[in-house]
Amino acid sequence: MKIDESDVRILRELQADSRISIRELSKRVNLSPPSVTERVKRLEEHHIIEGYTIRLNKKELGFAIDCIIEVTMRDGQYEKFKSFIKDYPYSEWCYRIAGGACFIVKLSVPALEDIEQFINSVSSYALTETSIVFSEVEVPANIDKFL
């Protein structure tokens, strides 16, 4: 799908505030509300916009520790790990990667013991290497990076 400058303005505004009303959005991008509605619907239908979401403050919810774990499979038990990680309560994301490890996982946990529990759960079929996150460097996911 080819997007034009009006679509880009709409995407910028929605990235800044996905709860904005169509009326306010149309004012900010200088298009009529029906035109903005049609454009947003087209962006959704073409999966340029995949969804609308909120950001949670995990620390306020009691998940004060983040870690990144590299997981290397023994005996090619990839499907077993993929099934396990899909339902694991503290996993934020998991990527299948190339390199020394097979997967990289981010966990957000209430306590260090929860990381140990994860490692114990997979140790019969995988090796792990864990890094504890001290802080996050904010990298904005601005639409301009992808144009």
Notes on the structure:
α1 (about 5-15) packs across α2 (about 20-30) and α2 packs across α3 (about 35-45). The model has no long low-confidence stretch (mean pLDDT about 95). The protein contains five helices and four strands; from the N terminus they run αααβαββαβ. A four-stranded antiparallel sheet has the order 2-3-1-4. The protein has about 150 residues and is α+β, with helices and mostly antiparallel strands. Helices cover about 35% and strands about 20% of the residues.
Descriptive terms for the model:
147 residues; alpha+beta; four-stranded antiparallel sheet; 36% helix; 20% strand; elongated
Q: Whole-number radius of gyration?
A: 20 Å
The count of strands amounts to: 4
Strand order of the largest sheet: 2-3-1-4
State the shape. elongated
Give the low-confidence spans: none
> Beta fraction of the residues?
15-25%
Order of helices and strands: HHHEHEEHE
List the SSEs and their pairings.
Layout lengths: L4 H12 L5 H8 L3 H13 L19 E9 L4 H9 L4 E6 L6 E7 L2 H11 L3 E7 L15
Antiparallel strand pairs: 1-3, 1-4, 2-3
